[in-house]
Specification:
Blueprint: H1 2-7, H2 10-42, H3 48-83, H4 87-90, H5 93-122, H6 127-140, H7 143-160, H8 163-187, H9 192-215, H10 232-266, H11 269-280, H12 282-304, H13 308-342, H14 348-380, H15 384-409, H16 414-445, H17 458-490
């Protein structure tokens, strides 16, 4: 498995690693659609119920951002350690990650509960939509510890390339969530609060399954249950890569404050329309998220082995695959969106606004996909700070200002605001390609060095140097065989 990830053909390897995650993400998408449908069924004539989930989304996205940071930091550490054959780092990963997840979960809950109401008000919540949002959020908050603990195990499995276990965990949690939605929303009479509790319960089930995977030693990285295995250098390396990844997602979450306020100032109904779009657009994005998961293992192990030509090829191959798949799915989504939106909302005003949003947001998403690949490559290699800088400029240097300026100049014309977003995305893409070229040149020239959690021992360093020399020799041999094959074919 590890050898094929480090040296196998990139395209087929990415497909093999991505398909299990794609299946799990497909179930997760099914949950999002079903969850939205059940919430809408509480009162189909009330547009604020679905809108309340959009109001809470930035907070939930904050939780996701932190969990992505944990899983991304762990995944990068594990993949680079495997690529460099640093088994001593792998032995301390689980306990260090669990310690970090528990600490982060406790701090998050202690911080969010007291400020929930002013926080949702900051996001634009008032009146009934604020009441619904608070009810939903309070019952959603128990998801935090399970989300963070699961992130540790997902990161390890992702770095190893054992995506099938991630798939099963996601499926089990999603099925439980879907089953519990009607039971808690309607059967227990909890309403929108039941949807929040069902989400927390589903994530708890995912965590239990992943814990069993490690207890039954289906991963190369084992749980030793030793406090002495909590390593602050390992935690430091997880945080060094994970914090920028969390901040990347946090910046995206905070940007919804600006987007929500801009849209509510134009027309409060836009928030519900945009929430519907965001939920349903995910079916075009889950293949990209799945591909990014597989790419993390390939890129991380290539970086650990210092195989920079393979890292460059992985970026190029993944970008082409992502744009081909995402472009096709976005066309299907745009054509089918009028029918899809009518299944969740009957208010004609919301449906009209959704029709304006779809084509322009689809174009913006398509242009952003290669940027996701670029940031994944840099983060997996241990340079998440560069991904963070690129993401910050993309969102706050281009997207948010473009929306704000167009809303101000065109005085509340939602079409003008939507048209400004793909223009900003195109400018971001140009910048991202320049950043990527500079990144690869830095690696290949030696100006950028792949880092690990701690200095290796003399024996370990010698082993790594020998492995690097063997890798270089293998690449030279492969090149010689390829040239010989070409010569023979020419004859």
């Amino acid at each position: 498995m590890e050898k094929s990830i480090k040296t196998g053909p990139i395209g087929p390897t990415l497909v093999r690693l991505s398909l299990p995650v794609l299946a799990g993400q497909a179930f997760n998408l099914l949950y999002n659609i079903v969850d939205t449908w059940f919430i809408a069924r509480i009162d189909p004539s009330d547009p604020w119920l679905v809108g309340a989930t959009g109001l809470v989304f930035p907070v939930f996205f904050l939780f996701l951002a932190m969990s992505f940071g944990i899983s991304g930091g762990v995944s990068s550490l594990v993949a680079r350690a495997i690529g460099a054959d640093r088994s001593h780092e792998l032995d301390r990963t689980v306990e260090s990650g669990i310690f970090l997840a528990i600490a982060a979960g406790a701090i998050t809950l202690a911080a969010i509960y007291p400020v929930a109401s002013p926080l949702l008000a900051l996001f634009g919540g008032t009146g009934l939509i604020l009441d619904y949002g608070l009810e939903y959020l309070f019952w959603l908050l128990p998801v935090v510890p399970f989300l963070f603990l699961s992130a540790v195990f997902i990161g390890i499995l992702q770095g190893e390339g054992r995506a099938q276990h991630i798939m099963v965990g996601m499926m089990l949690g999603t099925v439980a969530n879907i089953v519990l939605d009607p039971v808690l929303i309607f059967g227990a009479g909890m309403g929108i609060a039941g949807a929040g509790l069902a989400t927390a319960a589903g994530n708890a089930i995912t965590f239990i399954y992943l814990l069993i995977v490690f207890l039954t030693r289906k991963s190369r990285v084992a749980v030793h249950w030793k406090a002495s295995n909590v390593s602050f250098p390992v935690i430091g390396e997880i945080l060094r890569v994970g914090i920028p990844q969390s901040l990347m997602n946090f910046l995206a979450s905070v940007s919804f404050i600006f987007y929500n306020r801009i849209m509510i100032a134009i027309n409060p109904m836009i928030l519900t329309a945009f929430t519907l779009y965001s939920r349903l657009e995910q079916f075009a994005l889950i293949p990209i998220w799945s591909l990014m998961s597989g790419l993390s293992a390939v890129a991380g192990q290539a970086a650990g082995a210092r195989d920079f030509p393979r890292l460059r090829r992985a970026s190029r191959t993944a970008s082409r695959m992502a744009m081909a798949v995402n472009g096709s799915l976005l066309v299907v989504f745009a054509l089918s969106s009028p029918f899809l939106f009518r299944q969740f909302q009957s208010d004609a005003r919301v449906l009209d606004l959704a029709g304006i949003i779809v084509p322009w947001m689809a174009i913006a998403t398509f242009l952003t996909v290669p940027i996701f690949i670029i940031t994944t490559i840099m983060s997996a290699a241990g340079f998440a700070n560069r991904s963070l800088a690129l993401t910050a400029v993309r969102i706050y240097g281009f997207n948010v200002p473009a929306c704000a300026v167009s809303a101000y100049v065109f005085r509340g014309n939602i079409l003008a605001v939507m048209q400004a977003i793909p223009v900003a995305s195109a400018l971001s893409l140009v910048l991202a390609h320049a950043v990527q070229r500079n990144f690869f040149r830095g690696l290949e020239s030696g100006k950028l060095a792949v880092r690990f959690s701690a200095k290796a021992s003399a024996d370990q360093a010698a082993s790594e140097q020998a492995a690097a020399a063997q890798g270089a020799a293998a690449q030279t041999a492969d090149a010689g065989q390829a040239n010989a094959g070409q010569t023979e074919a020419g004859r």
